[in-house]
Design a protein that fits this description.
eight-stranded mixed beta sheet, 12 strands, two-stranded parallel ribbon, 7 helices, alpha/beta, binds zinc ion
């Protein structure tokens, strides 16, 4: 049953015959909480969002898939980071458990971000332990619980699940040198560890057929969410998809561009194709 946890997330369930397909958009939330206490300009803070990504995949429930979206913004708490990926320099007091800050945290882009982007701090203060704990318990925990339940439920019912973790990436198009990094899509399966190669290749093939450039595990390999969900040996497949923001929005005004409708239609076609893919894979699984 579809539901919403106010300020945290929503889950939309399949509206037609269900297939074990789960999509989640952890960074498209625009519900900025009153207790955020940031000091940087709001329009700059918002550039951390994967704005509209939940809408790009909005047809998923009508095509028999589950769609989950965060309401809290990524700059408040990043659900795509491990709970121990925390920056002690940001905390006022002593964190009660062991931490394992990644290279992302060291550059200010961890579980709780220190900067919107390098050189632009979010806070002019440290955060209390209680404040960060509240973000973890209020946002990170329920987000992963709801995603776990959706993937586990589908796996229990069908014996397999295909999960897509949906993101967008700042465009490198204008600044990129010739031959630089500016693909339309980047697929990440953490170098083949979070899903079967057939899944990654299928998605790449559908997108390329529709005229897009696709790279795999280049710069964006996938982070915490696909790492947690992906266990291909147990038929739990998890793939990250990054799409270039320049294809669908103005990166300064954060408004949809005329390209939005075409991209949304192509993503709808991708979800339709994935229905066929999942059905065929389930059939294969039934063979003696
Ligand atoms: Zn993202």
């Amino acid at each position: 049953m579809s539901f919403e946890i106010p300020g945290v997330l929503w889950r939309r369930d399949p509206e037609v015959t269900e297939l074990p397909l789960v999509f989640d958009s952890p960074h498209s939330g625009t519900g900025y909480p009153d207790d955020f206490g940031f000091c940087c300009p709001f329009d700059v803070l918002r550039t951390a969002e994967d704005t509209f990504v939940d809408e790009l995949y909005g047809s998923a429930p009508a095509l028999g898939a589950t769609l989950i979206g965060a309401i809290f913004p990524r700059s408040y708490l990043d659900a795509n980071r491990a709970v121990d990926d925390l920056d002690t320099a940001l905390i006022d007091g002593t964190w009660p458990s062991l931490l394992a800050p990644s290279h992302k945290t060291r550059s200010g882009l961890g579980l709780v971000r220190r900067v919107v982007r390098p050189g632009t701090p979010i806070y002019d203060r440290k955060l209390t332990v209680a404040e960060v704990m509240a973000r973890l318990e209020g946002c990170h925990t329920p987000y992963h619980r709801v995603l776990d339940e959706a993937c586990e439920g589908a796996h229990r019912k069908f014996g397999a699940v295909w999960h897509v973790n949906c993101h967008s990436m700042p465009s490198q198009r204008n600044g990129a040198k010739k031959g630089g990094h500016c693909p339309d899509f980047v697929l990440g399966d953490r170098d083949g560890s979070t899903c079967a190669p057939e899944f990654t290749n299928f998605v790449a093939g559908v997108l390329r057929e529709r005229g897009y450039t696709v790279r795999i595990n280049e710069v964006y390999k996938g982070v915490e969410i696909v790492k947690r969900q992906g266990r291909p040996a147990a038929r739990r497949h998890s793939l990250q998809i990054e799409v270039d923001r320049a294809l669908y929005m103005d990166q300064k005004t954060l408004e949809k561009s005329p390209g939005f409708a075409r991209l949304q239609a192509d993503i709808t076609a991708l979800i339709e194709a994935l229905r066929g893919f999942a059905s065929a894979e389930l059939e294969k699984g039934r063979e003696p």
